[in-house]
Description:
The structure holds 2 protein chains of 2 kinds.
Chain A: H1 26-32, H2 36-56, E1 59-60, E2 70-71, H3 75-82, H4 84-116, H5 122-134, H6 137-148, H7 155-166, H8 177-180, H9 182-207, H10 211-219, H11 224-252, H12 256-261, H13 271-280, H14 285-320
Antiparallel strand pairs in A: 1-2
Chain B: E1 3-6, E2 12-15, H1 20-58, H2 62-65, H3 79-86, H4 94-123, H5 130-142, H6 145-159, H7 165-188, H8 193-201, H9 206-235, H10 238-243, H11 251-256, H12 266-286, H13 291-295
Antiparallel strand pairs in B: 1-2
Helix pairs in contact in B: 1-12, 3-12, 4-7, 4-9, 5-7, 7-9, 8-9, 9-12
Amino acid sequence: MTLTVNTATRPPSSPPRAARVRRGGPRAWATRAPLLPALVFLVAVTQLPFVATLVISLFDWNSLDPGARRVAWFENYATVVTDADLRASVVTTALLTTTVVLASVLLGLLLALLLDRSFRGRGFVRTLLITPFLLVPVSAALLWKHALYNPEYGLLNGAWTWIAGLFGDDTPTQPEWISDTPLLAVEAALIWQWTPFMMLILLAGLQSRPPEIMEAARLDGAGTWQTFRYLTLPHLRRYLELGILLGSIYIVQNFDAVFTVTSGGLGTANLPYTIYQTFYQAHEYGLASAAGVVVVIGTIVLATFALRVVSSLFTEEAGRS
Amino acid sequence: MTTATVTSAGTTTTAAASTGPAGAAVRRARRRSAGLGLLAWAAGIAFALPVAWMALTSLHSEPDAATNPPSLTAALTLDGYRAFFDSGGGTGPWPALINSATASLVSTLLVLCLALPAAYALSIRPVRKWTDVMFFFLSTKMLPVVAGLLPVYLFAKNAGLLDNIWLLVILYTSMNLPIAVWMLQSFLADVPVSIIEAAQVDGAGLPTVLTRIVAPIAGPGIAATVLICFIFSWNEMLFARVLTGVTAQTAPVFLTGFVTSQGLFLAQLCAASVVVSLPVLAAGFAAQDKLVQGLSLGAVK
């Protein structure tokens, strides 16, 4: 009988001492400790309400009739999908977001290209261009609604009267911006506010182009359009993605402009406004919560892409430094 | 012999050659450059025009403000501002402005207290899996505000915290915390770890490291973070409108209650908008350089 002792095997639960990482050691906790207050606070104030929203969305609950509250499982979600008003507000949200984001990206790109070259007063022009973004959003919306769009004394109609007066027409027909094109009116106000945001991001992208490569292309005889199409645009792609995704996330949640310019009327109600209305005015808590969850799901899709873009820019910055 | 100098945009200017076909090309390039510069100026003026118009209208009297076509040369007066400061039932906008200032400043201070240690733990002495933590912070920012609005309202109603400015302070802190953590992480990451290690080898304790090494390098970035958090808190309207009434009303909510359907009010409204926007405009201009970094959550430098 021979005994063989296999000295090469070790029990799986205790790896060799040298390689063991002390995960629970005091050193590790000292490093983690500064992080905890922020994490705990954030989880408490953001995640808990969301869980509560999920729970409430499963109820049929109108606060004006609390006795009739009952568990309705997924009825509210069915309503969100089938109710004409809610469906319309989903469409409006998508339309509003897409138009505003695309228009402000294009406009922002043009402005960034203009600002990329040096000229006299460049810093001042940049300050002028970011002013719309720095106004309080409600102020900006009120400015557009009353000082610009108003048919009686707004600037746009006033300018139109002045121009028509130059051609001898003293009482031209005044266009009614908000009544005739309500969604466009809201979109114009938002585009005005968000173009500077896109411009700043794209300008940073343009200024981070490696100058040697641009110089080499120019020396090789590449024209402006060729340089733009084959060198600048590919480099800008990540910045464009970042601008589009971040802008979309902010604009999907936009409430101030819709609330102020049209009060959600004339077909401009987007999801945040509809949810606010459902909860604050109609007191339908369950339905509002279900709509809120739908918005979150949509935003998660956007956010996944955004996180990927941010992470790739992140790792590039880390790799560069 | 021509000398070529490369400007930041890659256009070349040449000295000495001003005649012949080379000179013509140079003149064309210079004219095009000047033309594009003018175009940039036109764009800047076009974008700032509504704001300038708002400021001008706020300085007109009510009848002058409501003319069609607009009167650019009407007499300037402070009537709009006077009416604004007299409004709101005699106390004027001061309660609302003070509420906004309280909510913004206190929440920014809280954010700083929470985010600075967190950013330190994510940059200078990073925990393992710090990227995961960063993305968790970011994901909370991407959750729409409307999704959490109702439970917060119910909690506030049951806890008797409605119309209370401190509830807004807590909410704004949670709103700005992810942004602050991301921004501060990118600014603190600029501090070279080798210098900190050298200082620690020389016997410097944590306070010394913080005040003598980290603060000077990351100082401007921290200042920009403070300004941006202040701006976002001041601008916020949805939570403020739902959760406050009369006592804790903030400036943006006050502004929305301002529009009357009787009589002329445009000059007063413009004056109100100017006054309410002034703090954030000032903060935004002060933080201008770091604005991109803040807006893109530190992804773009």
